[in-house]
Structure formats: C-alpha cells, structure tokens
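Schema walkthrough. Field components (list of strings):
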Amino acid sequence: MAAAVVANGKKKLEQIGPKIGVISGPTNPMVTPLLTDLYQFTVAYAYWKDGKHNERAVFDLYFRKNPFGGEYTIFAGLEECIKFIAHYKLTEDEIAFIRKSLPPSCEDAFYNYLRGIDCSDVEIFSIPEGSVVFPKVPLMRIEGSIAVVQLLETALVNLINYASLVTTNAARHRFVAGKSKLLLEFGLRRAQGPDGGVSASKYCYMGGFDATSNVAAGKLFGIPLRGTHSHAFVSSFMSLDEITERSLKHLDSPKVCKDFVCPVKMWLTKLKRSRLLGGIFSETNQSELAAFASYGLAFPGSFLALVDTYDVMRSGVPNFCAVALALNDLGYRAVGIRLDSGDLAYQSCEARKFFQTIEKEFGVLGFGKMNITASNDLNEETLDALKKQGHEVDSFGIGTHLVTCYAQPALGVVFKLVEINNQPRIKLSEDVTKVSIPCKKRCFRLYGKEGYPLVDIMTGENEPPPKVGERILCRHPFTESKRAYVVPQRVEELFKCFWPGSSDKIREDLPPLKDIRERCIEQLEQMRPDHMRRLNPTPYKVSVSAKLYDFIHFLWLNEAPVGELQ
Amino acid sequence: MAAAVVANGKKKLEQIGPKIGVISGPTNPMVTPLLTDLYQFTVAYAYWKDGKHNERAVFDLYFRKNPFGGEYTIFAGLEECIKFIAHYKLTEDEIAFIRKSLPPSCEDAFYNYLRGIDCSDVEIFSIPEGSVVFPKVPLMRIEGSIAVVQLLETALVNLINYASLVTTNAARHRFVAGKSKLLLEFGLRRAQGPDGGVSASKYCYMGGFDATSNVAAGKLFGIPLRGTHSHAFVSSFMSLDEITERSLKHLDSPKVCKDFVCPVKMWLTKLKRSRLLGGIFSETNQSELAAFASYGLAFPGSFLALVDTYDVMRSGVPNFCAVALALNDLGYRAVGIRLDSGDLAYQSCEARKFFQTIEKEFGVLGFGKMNITASNDLNEETLDALKKQGHEVDSFGIGTHLVTCYAQPALGVVFKLVEINNQPRIKLSEDVTKVSIPCKKRCFRLYGKEGYPLVDIMTGENEPPPKVGERILCRHPFTESKRAYVVPQRVEELFKCFWPGSSDKIREDLPPLKDIRERCIEQLEQMRPDHMRRLNPTPYKVSVSAKLYDFIHFLWLNEAPVGELQ
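Field assembly_structure (string):
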C-alpha cells in the first residue's frame, strides 16, 4: 500500500517485509496514519524535541467495564490492527498536511523523523481475536518507541472499540436466540456509516450470526449472504395482468407450465374453499399475489416472500401458499415467509398452523415445516420475550439494534502507558476503577476442575508463571480484602505475539474469519453458565499476583499527593 | 473511479460526464454498488425477468420521528449520496460476485443488463443539505427505472441515516452549550469504526462544532484541528532531569533563555509562597512539572496542558501556571488548561480564581482569562447541568456521546415507493405512523408574519403551489380532525434538483462544507424557540394539501382488506 509510493520508506519496509508475510492493508482504505488525534502528533513533536521519542515504552489496551450489563466481552478487531501496523508509513502528502497543522515554529528535522517511522520496532502481544475477555486484563500489549506507539493509539482504539462491542452484541443475541435458530444480520442501512455497516457484518458473523444481507461484506469476508424482497417490490405490482413472462419449466422434467399464474389462481381458490382454512381469509390482495407469482417465477428454487405488506393472515400467507403450492406441483420447494411487523409470536404461530393444515389437508409433505423468518426492530429483549411467549420463528433478521449497539453504543477501550525505560508507570484517578495497572505484564487464565475458566491473573513480566496443580494467591488489584487461593487444573497464557517487531519471536498467523468465529463460539461454550446469564450474571474474577499487588500499591502511594483537610 | 476501469460502461458515463462536472467519488472508497442488501439484486432480477425493470418509479426517502426526544432534525449526507450516484457503475469483478451470489438458474442476460446500469436516467430532488427538516416530509425524491432506484436504496439510506443523526446531535450540543463556547469534537477513538469517526468529524462540524481532533478529517474536509497532549505524555516523565533541551528564545528579541527550567522552578516557588495562593498546594508532582516544562519548550506559542493526571488544584494548575508564567516572561502567551475528570464546574471555578489571583498579584495582564477546556464523557445533559451549576469552562471537548449518538444511536430513515408508471402507491401498516404518503410530491415550507416557519406542506406534483398571502388549508396526513388554515407570508419550495438524470433541469451545485455549516446554523436560528426547547418542545406541523389528503384516504380504503370480527 503506502510502501509502494514512499520511496524513502521502501528500504525499511523491505526489511520488515518477511514479517508482513501476506498481511494485506486495512480493509478500509481510510485507515491511514492520519486516522488519529492531532495531539498524538503534538506529543510526538514534544518527545522528539526533548530527545525522548525513542524511549522504550509499554502500553496496555484494555476496557474497564463489560457492555450491555453483561459479565463478558468478545475481543475483536485485532486483524485490522495488525494490517494497519504492518503498512504503517506516512506519505509525503500526509507529512505535508501535518506540517501545515502544527505551529510553524516546529523544526523541520521533525518531519524527517516522521518520514522514517514505521512499525518495524514495535512489538505487539495480544489475546487472540474471538476470545472471551474481561475488564482490566490487557487485550493488547504494545511496546516500542514511545512516540511511535502513541501515534498508533487512536487508530488501534478505534479499530478495537466498535469491533469488540458489536461482536459481543452479536454473541449476546445468539445466546438469547439459542443455537438452533438461523441469525441474519440486516443492519447495513441503519449502521453508523458505510464501514459501520461493513464491519458490523464482519463482526456479527464472528460473534455467531449465520449470514448477512450486506453484499459488500459477503464479497470482502466470504460471509454467507441472505435476502428476500422488499415491500416496494410488492407494492410495485398492481395486478396479475402485469406478469408477462409466465412460463416455468418443471424442476425434474422437460415439461413446461405455460402459464404459471393459472395453478397459482387455482390453488388460491382451493385454499379459500378448504373446510379447515375457510374463514381465515376471503379476498386476498391481488397486487401482492402478482408480486409473489412474479418472484416465484424468478426464483422458483428459492421462493421466500415478505407477507406483511397488506395483512399477514388475510392476504400474505394465503397468497404465499398459493404460489408455493403451484411451485410444488412443478417440483420446486418454497423456502418460506418473512414477517416484518406486528405481533411476531402470534403471527408465526398462526402461519405455522396454516402451513401444517395445508400439509395435512392436501398431503404436501414437509409444507408444515416451511421456514418462518422474522424481522422488525428485534433486539435481545424482544428475542427473549418471543421465547417466553412461544413462537414458530426459524430465522431472525436483526438490524438496527444489533449493528448500532443500541443498548450501549460505545465500549470504553483505553490505552495506557504502563512502563517506560523499564520504569513502571501508573495513571491515578480519584475514581479507583480508573487507576491503571502498571508494569509490563503477562496474563494467564486459570481453569478449575470442571474445565471452566476460574480467574484471570496478571503478573509482572519476570515473575514465575502460575503452574498446574500449584496453589497461587489471586488478589483483586485494588481491594485489599478480595483475594483467593487457586489451584489451577490448566493454565493458559493469554498473550501471543502478533507482531514481533525487531525481536526474533515467531509471529502468530492471522487466522481466517471462520476460524475466529469458531474460536468465539467455543470460548463462549466453555464459560460457566452463571457468568453468561442475561439477568444478574456472576462477575468473572480478574486478579493480580501478590507481587504485582504490592507493587501497584507502593507506586500508588508514591505518586498520589497527600491531602490536607482544611 | 469505476468509470476508468469498466470499458463497456465508458460511453454512457461519458454522456453523463458534463453532468457530473467536478463531482468526485465518495469520500470512503468502500461506498460502491455492492454496499447494498442482497435483496436489491434479487428484486432487480425479478423485475428484469418480468420485463418490469424499466418501469418509471418514484421513491421518497424520509424518517418518521425526530431523534433525541427533540422536534427537529438536520438533514445531512446529501453530498455523499450524489457522489455515489454520479459514479455508480458495477465493475466486472462486482458483477462476477453477484452472479456467484444469485441462484445459478438466473439468466445470463441479466448480468449484461447490470453491466449497462448507471444513474444517467435517475432524477434526484432533495432538500439542501444542512436544512432543518421534519418527520414524514421527504428529504429526497428519487425517480428512475424501478430496478436501478432500488439498487441505490440501501447505500442512500445508510449515507443519510447516521449523517443526519450525528449532525442533529451536534446541533443539539451546540444549542445547550450556547454560541459563545468553543466546541471540539474528540470522538474518533470511540466512534463506530474508522469512518464512523471520520464522518462524525465532518457532520459535527456541519452541525455547529468548531474543530475536531481527527487529523484525517482535517485533511479531507478542511475542518480546523485542535489537540493538547495525553495523560501518557505526563506520566512518561519522571523528573525535571529528563529535560535535556532547555534553551528557549524570547518571542520578540534575539535573547535566549538558556535553562527554561530555572524560571519555571522560580515561578513555582513564588506561587507557593504567595500569600493569596498559599495553602492551596504544597509539593506538586515533579513528573508532571517536567512534562509541562517540556511541552512548553516544544510549543511555547500555544502551550496548553492537561492538568488532571495527579490532582488538578494541588498539582496540575500550579504546575501549569509556573510554566505559563515562565513563558510569559519570554513574551509567550499560554493558551490554557484542559480538565478531563472530576467535578468540572467546581474545578473550572477554582482554576479561574487561581488564574485571576495570579493576574492581580503578579500583574500579568490577561492571565485571569486563561482558556479552560473541559472534556470527559460530556453530553447534552452534563452540558446543561454545568450551565445550571455555573462554571468557567470556555471550550468543551466532546467525544463518545456525540459521535456514537449515545442517547439514540440510529435514525429510522426509510425509502418508500410512492408512484410507479404514474400510479400512486401506498404502503399500509397496522401502525398508522408507518403508512406512507403516496404520489410524486412537491413540498413547501410556509412562513408566518414573524418570519418563523409555520408548517411544511406536501402537495401532489401537479397541484398549484401555495401562494404568498393566499389562504391554504393544511391537513394532518392521517388525522381527519387536525387541520388549519394558513396565510403564508413567504413560501419556500423545499426540493431542489441535485441530479437531473436525462432531463434538462439545472443541477444544483454541491456547496462547500463551510457553506452547509452556515446554512445549518442560520436555519436553526430561524426556528421558533419553542420548537427548539430541550424539554417538551412544541412539535412543528407537517401537513398535506386537502387534495392529497383525500387521495391518501381514497387509496388507503382501496388497498386495505376489510376485517371480519369473529
């Protein structure tokens, strides 16, 4: 990407070339080194001016509170971060703009310094994408020259924040809907901008959705695509006369039905006269019937109709069945219906009864199992309410609430300095939950006898790691009284090296989206059920080692001013 | 863009070339014809298969409810829509992907049809961007071949939805903050994805913000940039010894201060010993002092410090003042401080007193007027609460709540068919507020004697327009009893032609962002104050002509099935 156009950056990028491997640039070409806050450049200048810019610093990227009132979060966005890092290079044009944006008193040599910057000396350890994660435990640990790492901050936080939020939201929707339902993401039109839409599709799939309506996301990420037709399609028809191309070949024979509208009309009459179905409807809407017949002609093998344009049970469902039964006569199986308004639980049950009656009365095997998709402003609460009421919906199409994370549209991911020149640093705050945990750290997940994760523990980089079968004291980072001994049955080191910088560590491959999705689903299944409850879930424990605890509090006292009451 | 690579689309695009004029492609390269729902392509196929694809259709793009509990909305996103339209052209690669995504039974000739599609025959009338708009009144009227217009739907809705929402949110923040405050958008890191961030910056500026921290947005749109430094910058310092480059030239003379740290220390001692300031603080944090001194050395002409890393009044403000006063001795004026936590009202008042005391005691003219910026999870409510408490903040930096539209993260923009082949169409719903208003329409804003807009009225395309001084009946579109006579003092036609298609109408130019921003500010000022209140605002009236009213209800009765109570 940038490398191709920046002549003087070429050499260095070539050096890190082998490390990039096949890492392509960010999915969104707008993710450039300028996707950052101005103060990252002013601070870089101040570091540079003071000769401090190359001091080695360690930053933690983490969040402080699980979203949506839950007790877990899914970590997502790592791949995009690594793509950004791998191609980080300021172009001349970008440098010219930075120069224009800083005071004219800034020295020229600084821009030469910017010209030379890339991420060949940055080291990123991270929890793998698609993992279940918890507050305060760093998702990523970024180490490098302080000026360079700060220049990365805003983009990294941006790329992780929404990605993790919407993946978590998708996972929560999946949890409520249950494993057996098909979940479709329909949010593009309501998303916060074009790439809000595209990344929502990616991360909802990661979080457990089955498909998206978003064609661009299908192409970019290989996500299965789904879609039916719109209300406008239905209301664009006036009558059956508009159907000009009416012939349809039998599926399994060379026979051709010359006027498909005939069997459709015939079936509608049959349904109307049926003893069991009679009375449910009288005259159906003819524009709707025309639209369905036309759609059936276009997609005989995958006929799915939106049935709520006029009236679900008095028009949409009978019209759909007439077309589906006519298709059935030609050997085709209709897929089903979509409900997009009204009482979805009730309508789905009524539609199911209608389908089952047809199966019985006309002996159409499998007709009762017709797919019912529901959409219309669905969210966790309505999915939950539907489940409690009882319904016959097989697939849910979810849009606005899912992709905009309506229940909580932002995750507070932060990026804090924890060490510089091997000196641990702490960020204090009057609000204890905002105090940062200092030191370059390692993080472990300890598993109990039943195979569930019990607690995450952070230790200093050079402490001996927790060992299977060995008792270890896990302390709450800030509250003295909260601590527990744990004898782990399994110890998982959470960080893996995703960008080795100038070190000779092995870089973890970026797995394909499907694998990340599977990881996510597996990790969620592994959790103890009480952490996953929608209401009053049990908080998962996050801790520090005894040594790190002591160190935090030593540093804290050291930095905090002593008050004077007056 | 696309035009350059699609050989067989070239000719047609050349024909519409003069109409594109200088319209560049979408800001985000991800805005392509694939940024749409799959069903737009399935529906296009069904239209095409039935020979219906070229039927002339009219769609309205509108929303049903103002966001944030308010009674107004700002329309934004038009420019991006026109850029999308102007360059609409499917590439071979995109067509190949669509072919892969549709059933194999779809006929080949359809893809040839897709190959030939562009927007040379689409006509777009729209309210100008930056206008105050209201529910139900179409923001855009899109006319063209039904298949083509439907293919545009999802992208247009996506581009308008968030743009209008966040512009409205920005305007509401401006309204609460008042005209005199400087409003800075700081949301990039918490936005919903990279272009959530970039477009938030654009539209917050449009809605009345003064600047952004987002460098990419500064470059793309020419928005003024602002920024200070981070907490990490402060905590990266340990002591004053780290400042290696200490010399600073006087602003207006060739004299050089060889060790800037000396006057800083001297001033800190002076402040500590001051009779009036004494007791407020004792020992300040020395790492913070070092960070400020270093930042002052880097930016002597624009020194602004974040003062809450350790303790605002016992460390941050005195340290800032020591550096600011040392700079002052060399002829430089510091800009001010930023508060990012705690009780902003109280802290700003305390800081202001401190500055004013310094101005008096040490005779530093203007020091009392030092700029105070506040940030930290601000939103409409906190701005309002701050105003009620009384504060001394001059600028607000607003992020998360602003850019994610936390109070309501989605606007329900819809896109409805209102006419096909000159036949008006209506979309019914059990929920009356969801019934669409049929017919190709014109829309007018009627102004009263005092210059305020009184009511918006929609009429059929061919009705005589409302006239100044002539009484006209304005009817609520759905409620029979709600109607009023109006004698307008001014009549403004709301739609202008922004994309003339194959007609010879004149295309409105796309104004520069600054002009749209001014339009927005002017339009807001023009509104009657009771519509703008935060609490219980008066709804602005939206109406239809008597003729259109009768027609809606005729069509409604015609389409709705008659129920049977059982």
